[in-house]
Amino acid sequence: MADQALYRTGSVEQHGPREGGRTSTPFASLIAVLATLIGLVLLAWTILFVTKGRFLKSTFERYASRSAEREVRVAGDFKLYLNPIDIKFLAEGLTITNPRWAKERYFLKSKLIDSKIETIPLIFGKRRADWLMFVNGELDLAWSPDGKQNTWTLGKPSGEPFELPDIKRALIQGTRIRYTDPRLRLFANVGIDTVRAQDTRFAQDIRFAGNGTLRERPFTLSGSLMSPNETASGGRNRFRMHAEGYQTVLDVSGTLPGATRIEGVPLDFRLRGYNLARAFDFLGVAVPDTRAYRLRSTLTRQEGEWRFRRLRGVFGESDLAGWVTVGMPDNRLKLDAALATNTLDIIDAGPFIGYDPERLDATGGSVTRAQGGRILPDAPLRVEAISRFDADVKWTVRRVRADALPAISNIDLTLDLDRRLLKLSPLTFDLERGHVSADVSINARRAAVFTDMDLRLSPTPMGRLLKGFGVEESGTTGTVKARVNLAGPGDSIREWLGNSNGRIAIILPQGSLWSRNVQLSELDIGTFVWKMWEKRLKEPVQINCGLIAFTVRGGIAAADPILIDTKKNVILGRGGFSFKNEALDLRLRADGKKFSLFSAQSPVGIVGQFASPKLDVISPQLVARGAAGVGLAAVASPLAGILAFVDIGDAESAACGPVLAGARATAQREKDGDPRDDVGRGTTAKSESGKRSPEAKQKQRKKFLGIF
């Protein structure tokens, strides 16, 4: 039994190792497979290292040509192997052809390319090279005429922007790079060369210089990558670039961790010139024209964006600060910015709405001289340029310097451009003690650019707003509010206004105004002379309500209505003006509510052009009344001549409800509720001859009989 037990025990001991051997077989197989793979890799590595991969030349040409959909050829020596884990690539006489649409036959030609490429980043789609030697090369970077393809995107045609590979160290000799963009009408030809080392020192300078044209205007550029000796061991590189052309000067400098490593590196960026819009032409971005400018910022490329931070500078006599970002989300250029100006000179604001900055400078800021006697700017919107990018810009201005105009301050502008639809909303600013808010939409998606503007002025003290026109605050308590709503086609302000439809309304709530100003406008000679003798020119005159409104059709604005009700008079207006030719033709007349001697009672004309309005005081009607007075004096007596200038005071007070609501002429009422017959769309019921309608005559007869 013991022997059997021992036998069984021994049997158990004998079977134990066999079972253990069976369980370790898969692990051993895995080890064997890995060892085989490693051995094969080492064998392949050894073969490649010993042969330098020269036998792969034809294979490389075949697969590279298929992948690039271009012909790729190596005329001389070829090497492709791992050293030790990074890829070593050398090719003599490498050529890559261009697409058929390109003018040049070859995208790339070189006598020698020698490089060491990091393998692991390449697996994840990043192009990094520890070393690049490029000798006697030519590189043709060109966009197709429609901007949908380029020469550097190999394989399936696309329009991706050009990105430099990340290169730590480089030695470039006798190489030229051409860049062409037909959309921008931009061509550049740049030569790159390395200053050779002296004795045992490594090459110090990679220098480049070249020239080109932008929109048929020449420019030059130059610069260098100054690499100290320690660059060979992964040191840093001092970079500088200088470019001039199109009245623009650009300087960029900084320190790079590698020959082309600019990601996340802050660079000193300086830009100056005669017009900032010309500098942005390099990006294909349309910005408003400016006067001479000087800007400085920190420039950083990060996460696919160019970021201009700590921006500061001046344009004309105005300052500018903030930040700007230029990116390519969804492969479309996008401009984001937040800008701030402490003081904006009114002359510097002119180019933003279409005035030529060069003409403004030449004329000392005179708009009319710059526009050949016109006021409305006619610079066209650059529709083609704004179609190439989007924008989101915020700009604040603390104050506007304009001595001859009402004080403008606290401008807050938000600009949004989305595929040819430009919105300025909200656009707000303070005007004296009032506030202006506006919403502007410029739609360039339509066949004809269409602009819609809605501008609103909150109640503003009239004395402050009109002080530049002789109205003083002392004795003036009246306020004014307004709304302008215009829409129409046109690619310039002048063309848009000349085709616009809409309404303009200026409302005068109850208040007072210096009597001198009111009496002059009413031409009530008797009252004015009487008060002048009594030295009561500054006695306030009460305004009950007033409305100066125009209906605009096809760029022609007709009074609808002009109606101002004061304590003693009702001022009526007719006529209008034209945005098409900037002509003015308005007639204002004051009817007295009370009996007055020596009242002219004839229309006062405002005629001429926007740039040079004229006051037509001596009207034919006034001359006729003067002649009648002379005739009466000759026939009867001098006292009878006065009768020609008597105003019996028959004007009907206005109902202020429709006036303050900005209603059209057809909705205006007299104080007793009857429809007014003396206002109309562009006319008044009382004509220039002074004749009233039959209804008005009937009222006049009743009032005449009531007085006498």
Oligomer: single chain
Shape: elongated
| Radius of gyration from the alpha-carbon trace, in angstroms | 41 Å
Average pLDDT reading: 79
Explain what you see:
Helices cover 22% and strands 41% of the residues. The protein has a 29-stranded mixed β-sheet that branches. It has a domain at 502-707. It is built from 16 helices and 34 strands. The termini are far apart. The longest helix is centred in the first third of the chain and has 50 residues, at 2-51. The protein is α+β, with helices and mostly antiparallel strands and 708 residues long. The chain is elongated.
Give a short summary of the structure:
The protein contains 16 helices and 34 strands.
Keywords:
29-stranded mixed β-sheet; disordered N terminus; 41% strand; elongated; 708 residues; alpha+beta; single chain; 16 helices
Walk me through the topology.
Layout: H1 2-51, H2 57-68, E1 72-74, E2 78-82, E3 87-92, E4 94-97, E5 106-109, E6 112-117, H3 119-123, E7 128-135, E8 138-142, E9 166-173, E10 175-181, E11 186-195, E12 205-214, E13 217-226, E14 237-245, E15 248-256, E16 267-273, H4 276-280, E17 293-302, E18 305-315, E19 318-327, E20 333-345, H5 346-349, H6 357-362, H7 367-370, H8 383-386, E21 389-401, E22 408-418, E23 421-431, E24 434-443, E25 450-461, H9 462-465, E26 479-489, H10 493-498, E27 501-508, E28 511-514, H11 515-522, H12 525-533, E29 540-553, E30 556-566, E31 569-578, E32 583-592, E33 604-609, E34 612-616, H13 620-635, H14 638-642, H15 656-660, H16 694-707
Parallel strand pairs: 7-9, 8-10, 20-21
Antiparallel strand pairs: 1-4, 2-3, 3-6, 4-5, 5-8, 6-7, 10-11, 11-12, 12-13, 13-14, 14-15, 15-16, 16-17, 17-18, 18-19, 19-20, 21-22, 22-23, 23-24, 24-25, 25-26, 26-27, 27-29, 28-29, 29-30, 30-31, 31-32, 32-33, 33-34
